[in-house]
Structures are given as structure tokens and as C-alpha cells.
Prior knowledge:
alpha+beta; elongated
Amino acid sequence: MTAKTKNTLAAVTAASIAAMLATTAAPTMASAANLKPVIGCEAPGGKQEGGALIGAILGGVLGSNLAKNDRGTGTVIGAVGGAAAGSAIGCKMQEKRTANEYGGTYKSGGYKLASYVQPARYDGLNEMFVATSTVNVRAAPTTRGAKTTSLTRGQTFKAMAVANEGEWILVGRDGVGIGYVHADYVRPANGGYRYASY
């Protein structure tokens, strides 16, 4: 293979990779415009961080091999592009997993809720709680709400917010509200006061 053919193949490969990175990383670049980090994905999970790391390594190696005259610059550019592409792919995987697990999510009152959870008026909490007995988690802050899951006695969970003036607690999993438990059956894990004053 002649040197001219090698250079042409390297240029075509670099152009193809650049085009792929530009289209794949578009969601990440839009996030960056909102001052979110490369690993700031709306869906929970660790796939985005892993994708960014793997992409940075592979992009750095590829950039170093393609940049014959200035391997340092090629490595940096390849690593940045690879991290952006890997981050975007990882975020898409997290979004797909969340959609499968919760049937999708939506936002209400500043909280991300599973598609089956009914919204309510919330007061912020964001604290670890523990179930004092086995209790049903319901789709709505009422005993008539459909049961979504349950907590067992001693099980800890993230209390995202209180609803209905403190009568119900919004149970969080991976940053998503998955239902409500009645406040009489849970308490703060650190032994703090009950939120009966809401």
C-alpha cells in the first residue's frame, strides 16, 4: 500500500469518525450548552460514566494513531470526542432502562415520577427514611391508590418529598418517585422528628 493510499484511508476514516461523533454526541453537546457536565444525564444509572470513560480511552488511542505529526493533540481531540460520544450512548442506554423499569417518567412539581405515579402537592424532604412495619407503596397518596410495591420493616429508602400536608411520603428509587407510603408507617432513619408539622 502506497503512502498516498494510507493517507487517503486515514483521512476518510477520520472524517467518518468525526461525522459519527458529531451526530452521536449531539444530545451531550446540548446538555453542555446548559452547563451540565458530560456525565449529567436525566435518567439514573452508571452507564453514562462508563461510556464516557471507554469512549475517551478508545478515542484517545484512535486519535493518537491518526495524528502522525502531532500525536499529543490527536490523542486529546480523540479522547474528548470519544468521551462525548460514549457519554451520549450511555445516557441513551440509561433512558431506555428507566423507560423499561418504570414505564417512562415525567416531571411534576420539580420531581421525576414513574409514569404510573399520580402527582400531588409536594414539600421537599430528600432524606433517608426507614419503614417501621411492612407497608404498601401506592401510586397515589391515598389508601385507594393502586399498590405498586411494598417496603418491609426496617427497609430504608430515599424520601424525596412529603405530600398531602405530610400524611404521605414520596418514595424515591434512583432519583425517580415510585409511589407513596403513609407517614404513620415510616420514620427518618437518623431518628429525627416525624414530619407531622407539614
